[in-house]
Specification:
The chain is mostly helical. It has one domain: Orthogonal Bundle (Arc Repressor Mutant, subunit A). It has 4 helices and 2 strands. It has a two-stranded antiparallel sheet. The two termini are 23 Å apart. This is Transcriptional regulator. It comes from Halogeometricum luteum.
């Protein structure tokens, strides 16, 4: 169960790294994104597709570029991440909790 969560977090981290590079270096293509991040082309392509589906970026002939939704997303995602962290912390098991044998 935790393995799946870790994989999702790794994927989200990659999406955010790709988005950050698009914001900083737009227009930017798959090859340069791969060089900057060290991710293989197919993973970069997947992250770009996910970001495109959310209309956070869009393709151009020169490479990926931001959209009018990019900055709204960036401003909003910090609050969402804080909320998720709080929920995860609330789920944490206490080390001192004794397990009852049944």
């Amino acid at each position: 169960m935790i393995d799946r969560v870790e994989k999702e977090i790794d994927m989200l981290t990659r999406h955010f790294q790709i988005l950050q590079l698009v914001i900083q270096h737009e227009p930017i293509g798959i090859v340069k994104l791969s060089q900057h991040t060290g991710y293989p082309h197919h993973k970069v392509r997947y992250s770009l597709r996910v970001l495109e589906e959310e209309s956070i970026i869009e393709p151009s002939q020169e490479g990926a570029v931001t959209t009018d939704k990019t900055h709204k997303f960036v401003n909003a995602h910090a609050d969402v991440i804080d909320e998720i962290l709080a929920r995860l912390e609330a789920m944490e098991l206490d080390d001192t909790t004794e397990l009852k044998e049944g």
